[in-house]
Amino acid sequence: xxxxxxxxxxxxxxxxxxxxxxxxxxxxxxxxxxxxxxxxxxxxxxxxxxxxxxxxxxxxxxxxxxxxxxxxxxxxxxxxxxxxxxxxxxxxxxxxxxxxxxxxxxxxxxxxxxxxxxxxxxxxxxxxxxxxxxxxxxxxxxxxxxxxxxxxxxxxxxxxxxxxxxxxxxxxxxxxxxxxxxxxxxxxxxxxxxxxxxxxxxxxxxxxxxxxxxxxxxxxxxxxxxxxxxxxxxxxxxxxxxxxxxxxxxxxxxxxxxxxxxxxxxxxxxxxxxxxxxxxxxxxxxxxxxxxxxxxxxxxxxxxxxxxxxxxxxxxxxxxxxxxxxxxxxxxxxxxxxxxxxxxxxxxxxxxxxxxxxxxxxxxxxxxxxxxxxxxxxxxxxxxxxxxxxxxxxxxxxxxxxxxxxxxxxxxxxxxxxxxxxxxxxxxxxxxxxxxxxxxxxxxxxxxxxxxxxxxxxxxxxxxxxxxxxxxxxxxxxxxxxxxxxxxxxxxxxxxxxxxxxxxxxxxxxxxxxxxxxxxxxxxxxxxxxxxxxxxxxxxxxxxxxxxxxxxxxxxxxxxxxxxxxxxxxxxxxxxxxxxxxxxxxxxxxxxxxxxxxxxxxxxxxxxxxxxxxxxxxxxxxxxxxxxxxxxxxxxxxxxxxxxxxxxxxxxxxxxxxxxxxxxxxxxxxxxxxxxxxxxxxxxxxxxxxxxxxxxxxxxxxxxxxxxxxxxxxxxx
Length: 717
What we know:
Helices cover 9% and strands 43% of the residues. The chain is mainly beta. It folds into 5 domains: 2-80 and 679-716, no CATH class; 85-168 and 600-675, no CATH class; 177-186 and 464-548 and 555-562 and 571-587, no CATH class; 209-319, no CATH class; 324-460, no CATH class. The chain starts with a helix and ends with a helix.
């Protein structure tokens, strides 16, 4: 009888424990990061009253007879299922979505928790609200080899978010370009000599120079093709240098006018009307030869004086890009060509406007058939404004005089016959800039429709594109870097870099002074080198940049310091398609990234899905500060609760595996959100009823056993 009493007592105690666990779960139904417990029972030892026997002697077997001695709590398991999310709006609150525990420090002790209610203390450390445990993470540091990337430290440390902390200014070291240069674009210069007629090797170095190996007779010669601007007369010359064994022979061409819609070239100083030929002695023991140039066809031949065999032939005009048209002054008809030569000006009013000389050639036939054509050369000064458009005064002539009855247009509403004007396309003939095209127009009485002259012609600057980007010196002073891309010839573009005074308006793309007025002035600070070339190997990405690496030097630094080096990255970041490409698609010129900035103050922060805490500074920079650390365990069920929603490892849980959030199988982070308790009240109320019924049933056994025991005692009386 005492056996049943003791058995019932074990049942009462076990269900009391179950009730305790259930009550604790219910009490923590709103505890952040709480993980519910589950009670598991197991029976106690059994007393055998009769052992089992096997069958035999015409009798069957007998099963054992046992009486149980009650129940005990086998274990109380923690259920680590995901709790529901609750948005708080507090930026420092975090929720783990998936596996893992926050790593917390209390003195020298390391604790682990799912409760992500964090605040900043007076030392700007991120701590757990209510406990003060310091949150651990990896400090993010800029990669010294790639300023675009941040690397996490190897060891965890206290996460510190110093609001109001100053960020030191950083000088720009890299500008990334992501753009496409339309392969269908015409060359930038509407007329000019070929820059690289022989492109024997894709990406041949040299700004305006090409080299080819040519065999004439039994001797191989090096032919160097070069376009030069003469600083004394401002004219453009095209030279061919023939060399062998250190001896050089030079052929020189310059443009003198236009005839039949084609440029007229003077060869080796010989007048165009004269035979364009000269005797040359090829260096290095070559045969005596004659160089002959035909202005009508554009062919240059080098022929052996003995026998007249052609040793070399090249057509200059096929590589020249020119536009021709006709104008009439009422009496005479002129053939016209226009040529752009970029010239640096010393006039203060023109500084920074990308000055160019626009040379216009007027060719007039002689009075009688067979008479030589006369030429007139007129030079206008033209500027490219900040938007990449032309700007000039149509009435201003820098050099020369308009021929015959032509005169500059004065802006009148009804231009008289014989006026010659240059206006930006869509402009009104005055100082305007509305298009990246120029319109050349001879104003005359348009009531004469029988005239077959092309009175209007446009020169499209499709091979010119520009981009602007604000860069910074080491003191944080802003500068506007402008890089222009100009198509030289097929698969070759020239880039030119210079600075604008003022600051760049990122929305408009224009340079502004301190009052917000649009300006376009060159700074006195110029990079070295200021230009280079991009070569494309026929398909897509850049195959070679010249100079290699395109690293510019700016004298920004303080006195005694080295020049600041800024790399123009045209190749992309590991993927050349992210850099500069040349496809038959619309041109997009964009500088997408630079790593410099002025001084700033930390004003705000946010938490990303990978646990990265990024600070937002007053200078517009967003910088990675820390990355939250998470821990996982081989057996998280083996963790021991220490109170305050914290766990510590045990022998059975295994050692903590600590790494950054959203890596190595660890969960991601939801910012401004908390993980609530995973307690389900419906389940807990069910367990509450079960534990109550079990408790009541066991107490009834105790009562019944007590009554029977009393009856037995009464029998003895």
